[in-house]
Amino acid sequence: MISILRHDLSDVVYRLADDVASLEVHRDGVSKHVALWIDEPSTRNRVSVARACSDLNFKILDSSPSSGLSIAKGESLQDTFMVLSRYTDLFAIRTRVVSLPLRIYAWTGLPVLNLGDGWNEHPSQALSTLIAMHQSDIASDKATVAIYGDFDRSRTVRSVALGVASLGGTVILVDPAFVNAPRLASLPSELGLPGSISVAADISKVEADMLYVCRPQRERWNSSQASPPPLRVQEVARFKMVLHPLPRGEELSTDAWEFIREQALNHVTRSYLTRRALLAALMSGALASSDEERYQPNLPTNARCSADDCTFRDGCLATLRLASGTLCCSGCFAPCA
Ligand code: MLT
């Protein structure tokens, strides 16, 4: 202000007001922006979106909580995203907060690319798997996909299973302990999907077009439940196609990993290209956000917020733990003790 005051202030206001008015009208040729919000660790999603944006000439706005947003001062998530919506054309969200991408879409009306929301869903990762099946001429409505891994807590598994069942295919959850699978298996009938999800105990007896493997999601465990035993090479070698979203944990023996490594790394490339295609389609309006996120999450009953002023009491999905405290999706903020 000091340097501005050296000028005639009314002249400055007059000239800048004209500039602002013309900027409000002429927005042609302005670059498209993607606000990238990441509040949980990520290699593939973070870097593939950065690379895709660079390929597409979209500019990234680093809007993660760690970048120093005012939520650290208690601004609600809703207000934060409404403000961010005035700077960006699209949101790319990787979050611990279940259903935050849907909330952001409801709050702002802007397209949202869900890069994984807590234990809920990972639509872009699942799409890359459905695309892999399509590229291998596996007819989706007749496909049988075996899945081995952490059914209860893997959003990738949930999205792949629901995606295959939505297309009319059959999913077999291979759960040697039969502990986790039934909850997911009931979803196709609850959601009225044409396909089905069933459970098998012994992978050596399962016939399928593809085996999908995922790691135990230890960051979402609060029990001492044992992981499924590592798959051996002879167990994975029976399948024509074996995919893994990575990162890997203890679900594959070293030999089994060596056997699928090339396919898994090719899938990393495919997942990046899928995100790039999704970003382009969402940005151009060829695909609407609601098309990408079809399922309301099946919330655990303990997901309610206990804060007195929570406006989402019956459906508070989420708290986001920050260094300074805990923020609920409606903005209730409980500072760290
Ligand atoms: C995810 O973000 O869920 C990954 O793609 C899979 C994993 O973390 O195991």
Protein architecture, described:
This protein is an alpha/beta fold and 337 residues long. The chain has 12 helices and 12 strands. The two termini are 40 Å apart. The chain binds D-malate. The site of D-malate (MLT) has 10 residues, from helix 7.
Content of β-strand: 15-25%
Shape estimate: elongated
Strand order of the largest sheet: 7-6-5-8-9
Indicate the structural class. Answer: alpha/beta
- SSE topology string: HHEHEHEHEHEHEHHEEHEHHEEE
Look at the structure and give the mean pLDDT: 83
CA radius of gyration: 23 Å
The total count of strands amounts to 12
The CATH class label of the largest domain is Alpha Beta
CATH topology of the largest domain: Rossmann fold
The unique ligands bound to this protein are: D-malate
Q: So what's the oligomer here?
A: single chain
Main sheet makeup: 5 strands, parallel
Continuous helix count: 12
Helix content: 25-40%
CATH superfamily of the largest domain: Aspartate/ornithine carbamoyltransferase
Low-confidence stretches: 291-304, 311-317
* Number of individual domains: 2
What distance separates the N and C termini?
40 Å
If classified by CATH, what would the architecture of the largest domain be?
3-Layer(aba) Sandwich
Per-chain topology:
Layout: H1 2-5, H2 9-25, E1 33-38, H3 44-56, E2 59-62, H4 77-84, E3 90-95, H5 100-108, E4 112-117, H6 123-135, E5 144-148, H7 155-166, E6 170-174, H8 181-185, H9 187-191, E7 196-200, E8 210-213, H10 233-236, E9 241-243, H11 254-284, H12 289-292, E10 319-322, E11 325-328, E12 333-335
Parallel strand pairs: 1-2, 1-3, 3-4, 5-6, 5-8, 6-7, 8-9
Antiparallel strand pairs: 10-11, 11-12
Helix pairs in contact: 3-11, 6-7, 6-11
This protein binds D-malate.
The site of D-malate has 10 residues, from helix 7.
